[in-house]
UniProtKB/TrEMBL annotation:
Residues at the catalytic site: 104 (proton acceptor)
Subunit: Homodimer.
Binding sites annotated in the UniProt record for substrate: 27-30, 82-85, 95-98, 122
Pathway(s) where this gene product acts: Carbohydrate degradation; pentose phosphate pathway; D-ribose 5-phosphate from D-ribulose 5-phosphate (non-oxidative stage): step 1/1
Name by which UniProt lists this protein: Ribose-5-phosphate isomerase A
Length: 224
């Protein structure tokens, strides 16, 4: 992991932002760099507004003076910029390492274009080394865990500072090891049908561009 590369990727993504855009603001440490870059451009006169995908992003964006709106103002997002925990060669993603996957998916899915920014440690040949985050209702999460085990997963209830981690939506996160994921969309489809599952961290077929920085150099991959 390199903060320098996260910043390089973030700077490259912000070049795609144009005056007047409504932006989807993802979550995580790479997105935090993007917010810094965006705020610098806003200080230079760029006029945009953002819809944040987490309370943490909302807080930082406010501190940086980035104008924010929510879905009561508009349901249209021109461009979303977000991070990822894993990116495969088909531009499928695992997300949710920071617990923001549900709001990220709502924001990213309604954007005209989604750009993913990352340092090169996130690029994998196959998804599944990073345990798949699955957001579940707290009620009956034990049952949901059993059902995930029946699908071949090993779910672990996420904790933070020894307390159960609670998402911005008041839900729990199960970090699920499935081994190497052969069929990302198929696995998502099975999980999302389970009662109690709110959303999975598989983002398949959603990305237009991936910007990866490796030792300070940009690698741009676009959906073919
Ligand atoms: O829930 C968190 C998000 O999916 C993040 O975009 C993802 O975890 C990547 O975060 P970072 O840029 O900190 O590695």
């Amino acid at each position: 992991m390199s903060d320098q590369d996260k910043r390089v990727a973030a700077e490259a993504a912000v070049k795609y932002v144009k005056n007047g855009m409504t932006l989807g603001l993802g979550s995580g440490s790479t997105v935090n760099w993007m917010l810094q870059c965006l705020s610098e451009r806003i200080n230079e006169g760029l006029q945009v507004r953002g819809i944040p995908s987490s309370k943490k992003t909302e807080k930082l964006a406010r501190e940086l003076g980035i104008p924010l709106v929510d879905f009561s103002t508009t349901t249209h997002i021109d461009l979303a910029i977000d991070g990822a925990d894993e990116i495969d060669g088909a531009l499928n993603l695992v997300k949710g390492g920071g617990g923001s996957l549900v709001r990220e998916k709502v924001v990213d899915a309604c954007a005209d274009e989604l750009i993913i920014i990352a340092d090169s440690s996130k690029v994998v040949s196959q998804l599944g080394t990073f345990p798949l985050p699955v957001e579940v209702l707290p009620f009956g999460y034990e049952v949901t865990m059993k059902n995930i085990e029946r699908l071949g997963g090993i779910p672990v209830l996420r904790r933070k500072d020894k307390e159960v981690f609670v998402s911005d939506n008041g839900n729990y996160i199960l970090d699920c090891q499935f081994g190497k994921i052969e069929d990302a969309l198929g696995l998502h489809g099975k999980l999302i049908q389970l009662v109690g599952v709110v959303e999975t961290g598989i983002f398949a077929g959603m990305v237009e561009k991936v910007i990866v920085a490796r030792n300070g150099q940009i690698e741009l991959t676009e959906r073919g």
